[in-house]
Amino acid sequence: MALGLIARPDVHAPENAPARMSSAPEAPRPLVTILFLAYQQAQWARASAEACLAQTGGPCEIILSDDHSSDGTFEILQQVAAAYRGPHRVIVRQSPQNVGIGRHYNDLVALAQGELLVTMAADDFSVPDRVERLLAAWEASGRRADLIASHVIDMDTEGVLHDVMPVDDLSRWQGLQAWAEKRPYVIGATHAFTKRMMERFGPLDPEVFYEDQIMAFRALAGGGALTVDAALVHYRRGGTSRRPTFQDPEQMKRWTRRQTLRELAEMRQLHRDAEQLGPQAVALLRQHLGLNPYRSDYMFRLGEATTAAERWALARSYRELPWWWRTRKALHQIFPGPTVAIKRLQSRLRRRD
Fold first, then answer.
1. Long-range contacts of 28-31 (CB under 8 A, 24+ apart)
2. From CA 138, how far away is CA 225, in angstroms rounded?
3. pLDDT tens across 84-136, in order?
4. Helix or strand run (H / E) with residue 226
């Protein structure tokens, strides 16, 4: 972990300021840490980081972190921090090598001193009072909730804003049983969560890419979750989770392999968290996941196979899965060229609609 520079908050106390009188002492404002994650996002990092530093509602600890970009993202974050004059304590750091989202999260959570941790991505944009409103919602819950979410505004690659994209009202999910019956729709880019929750369950699997449902699972096993009924993030289209339009069979194979590994990492992390909670949580999770572990394992092994014979043997062996699904996926791997052509045609037809 390499620390860059630290911008200390400016403190200006007026001379002869009158003493503040109060009949009862106020509870101290909890420290909020903003975890700003960036990687290869030089085109958006400056505006996003400046929005991060413009957060209202009191001083925060802000960690501007770059996961070893090669496009100048880290240097932009250094420039933004060096020019900053304000109440927040700003730390700029860069991973010594690219470690991926899961490990990047772990590193920042370990550094954070705050009780409430707010995530920001370098390709999104947080409205100025986002942290203030998330903190107010957490305080209103008696600091009990372990996860606070909000809605987003759809933002295209040019920065033009479109419709509000609502997430689910997380207060309607009470406990893991509700999560297992139906996962809530959440967007990780909106999340604030407690440090205590992360300390309870420990670091994420370094291979985790989608942390959204992991955070919801952890929160609902603890103090619960809630949603601020406002769009507090401008959420950029075409992010890291978007399915690309495949240009050739090799690109499709690489994407499928990467996506399958991400799905397996998420399920592996959920299982580890459930094991910490006990046998009942493990049984609930297994029932919820159903055939998904078999599907992801099958897809990974199909991708690793090198001959059509190996792939047909795998298709015959995974009898837990529907035969038609096994066959279709095997054919995609055996004949990737026609599969890519069909997917590109489907993509063009969707764009026309």
1. 29/58, 29/135, 30/114, 30/115, 30/116, 30/135, 30/138, 30/139, 30/143, 31/60, 31/61, 31/113, 31/114, 31/115, 31/116
2. 9
3. 999 999 999 999 999 999 999 999 999 999 999 999 999 999 999 999 999 99
4. strand 225-236
Residue found under tokens 């979410």: 149
Nearest alpha-carbon partner for 52 in 81, 10, 11: 81
Instruction: Give the fold, CATH level 3, of 2-10+29-236.
Output: Spore Coat Polysaccharide Biosynthesis Protein SpsA; Chain A (3.90.550)
Q: How far apart are CA 34 and CA 308, in angstroms?
A: 49
Residue 130 token pair: 């986002």
Residues contacting residue 284 through CB under 8 Å, at least 6 positions apart: 176, 177, 180, 274
Q: At a CB cut-off of 8 Å and minimum separation 6, what does 255 contact?
A: 243, 244, 246
> Nearest CA to 322 among 353, 298, 347, 286?
298
Total Cβ atoms within 10 A of residue 137: 19
